[in-house]
Amino acid sequence: AHEGILRRQAARESAARTYARALPIVPVRARGLTIEGADGNRYLDCLSGAGTLALGHNHPVVLEAIRKVLDSGAPLQVLDLATPVKDAFTTELFRTLPPGLADHARVQFCGPAGTDAVEAALKLVRAATGRSGILAFAGAYHGMTAGALAASGGASDVRVARLPYPQDYRCPFGVGGEPGAELAARWTESILDDTKSGVPSPAGMILEPVQGEGGVIPARDDWMRRMREITSARSIPLIADEVQTGVGRTGAFWAVEHSGITPDVMVLSKAIGGSLPLAVVVYREDLDVWEPGAHAGTFRGNQLAMAAGAATLAYVRENGLAERAAALGTRMIAQLQSLADDFGCVGDVRGRGLMIGVEIVDPEKPPSSPGGPHPAAPELAVAVQRECLRRGLIVELGGRNSSVVRLLPPLTISDEQASAVLNRLADAVAEVAK
Ligand code: PMP
């Protein structure tokens, strides 16, 4: 079955699909961190549906919530009508919102994917401000629809200004840390205030508190506060894209909490649906300029996703899984750091909570500036990914050069499982570095 399924899908499906294209596995069963393939092999899944599975595969609490709806005779498709299931979801969602937003928030169901919520957010701030330009960051990823794609640096006719996103390892200013972040903030200010070549009438700024697809680059808290300052001073709504960082992933329920800022708009998807498709945009109620029908869509009322999502949000909150992610993530990153000490091809280890990246570089090639990082090594990264898979570990690659090995384990991962993940990754790196 394994070979036949792989062969038929390779022939039938466009190569344009992105995730895990290179992984020759056929998942047939899964529980928690573990996936079982049609070939009988078992894998530790640190891709987690690109960060969708906060509680891992088929968590009993999620399955129970889904079963309850199925057994209740409740309708599964009612467009966006109010239902008890939706009521329970929004109650739980509002309970988790950052304090500054919780009391004055509106939610708009979009759907079913993260990119739909990004699109809605961009449309909302443009309608609310009457302006049109969008501010986004180098290396960002927001999705594949026209506006989200433009904000991610792709070809589109939506007008987007690209601003510098600070990073310590490949700092565009060559200084990294707080000075690099401050330079990036000043550059942003100068672009916004340049009346000749600056950005005409920005309607909003969209940013990821940790760039995920861009290579797991956590924004510094002080830079996040500067972005809040800069946008507030110019009455530009700030949109936090928490599609990947949300629901405890980074060690806070929402990643904006690390810096204490309150965004005007939050874009949420992935884990909020408890493994089923769900996407919402949450925003300050005074931005609520939608007229009835202004943002429609057939699949905005997925009852099973709302039930699975509400169960996930409640479980993460009640079991302190964000705190757990913070503590375990810190330990995992510290242990991975020793890989960077031992192997020249591990250029950098970084992350926040259980959103972890290991940048693979070519130690044979000289850094482009003295003391700077070695060039990224995408082919070595693919080799590490392949060696991981041979050892029963699924990891994803990301980053501007596809040279960052990404770990997004479920927040429920045990200490023993985390050790197994780290050991397999270390063995894979050692093999490739031979
Ligand atoms: N925003 C961010 C930060 C993401 O990581 C992603 C997906 N990786 C998206 C938006 C788009 O979500 P989707 O793939 O569900 O459209």
TrEMBL record:
It comes from the Bacteria. The keyword Transferase applies. Pfam families: Aminotran_3 (PF00202). Pathway: Amine and polyamine biosynthesis; ectoine biosynthesis; L-ectoine from L-aspartate 4-semialdehyde: step 1/3. Keywords: Aminotransferase, Pyridoxal phosphate, Transferase. Its EC number is 2.6.1.76. Its cofactor is pyridoxal 5'-phosphate. The keyword Transferase applies. Belongs to the class-III pyridoxal-phosphate-dependent aminotransferase family. This is Diaminobutyrate--2-oxoglutarate transaminase. It comes from Streptomyces phaeochromogenes.
